[in-house]
Amino acid sequence: MDATELTAKGFHISTDNSLLDFDTICNFLQNDSYWAKGIPPERLRLSIDNALCFGIYDVKKQIGFARVITDKATFAYIADVFVLDEYRGMGLSKWLMQTIMAHPDLQGLRRWSLATADAHGLYEQFGFTVISKPERWMEIFSPYLTQQN
């Protein structure tokens, strides 16, 4: 299904933060994601306020989300990507990624990055690969809940 078909079915994507359904986003990330379980609502609110956010909507109901952390000049990190279970398999995540990659504020960047445990096939369609020189990357990782990662 392409963007025209999805739009015709009442779906749309917006970067207008005033449309975001914080409760839907918070519930999914706290309870259904493997990467942000237990994120405190105030921390999530701050992360949304300081990122370029993309919401997917079925008419007015929020059904998907992604955040892009970026300086809009050289780097973007894609985070918190999800589509609610009942809307999966319709091409919405692919459409979301197409929309993110085509956003005018994100053109000409030198580096994009993201982390995923299970969606490599989706991201590979957009040119993402396994980090070629992982020895150059470092991290400090502090999960919100004590969990096996």
From TrEMBL:
It holds the Pfam family Acetyltransf_7. GO terms for molecular function: acyltransferase activity, transferring groups other than amino-acyl groups. Gene3D superfamilies: 3.40.630.30. Keywords: Transferase. SUPFAM superfamilies: Acyl-CoA N-acyltransferases (Nat). It comes from Mucilaginibacter mali. Residues 11-149 form the N-acetyltransferase domain. The keyword Disulfide bond does not apply. This is GNAT family N-acetyltransferase. InterPro entries: Acetyltransferase_Butenolide, Acyl_CoA_acyltransferase, GNAT_dom. The keyword Transferase applies. PROSITE patterns: GNAT (PS51186).
